[in-house]
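U., I forgot to send this yesterday:
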Amino acid sequence: MDGLLSSVDSQVVLIAAAIAVLILSSMLVIRILKAGAGLIVAIAAIVLVLQYGFGISFSQLWGEITNLPHDMTQLVQGFDFNALTSVFSEG
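Result:
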């Protein structure tokens, strides 16, 4: 066993391993892109329509996306559950 390990150049093993990892990683990325291609195209289409149709920049869109949790919290806190239950209890 020592003879086999000593006769193999560590650089060749390293290059072979690097090539194998590169091929497998590339296959993984391709599979992910294939699975999400429709979603990627839809997001790109929305962003392009917002930019060219309405003049909304990507930074404005991203700012609104980052504000969504805060806006949702305000919406839930301002929601009147008593009025909603009284509407449903009358019918």
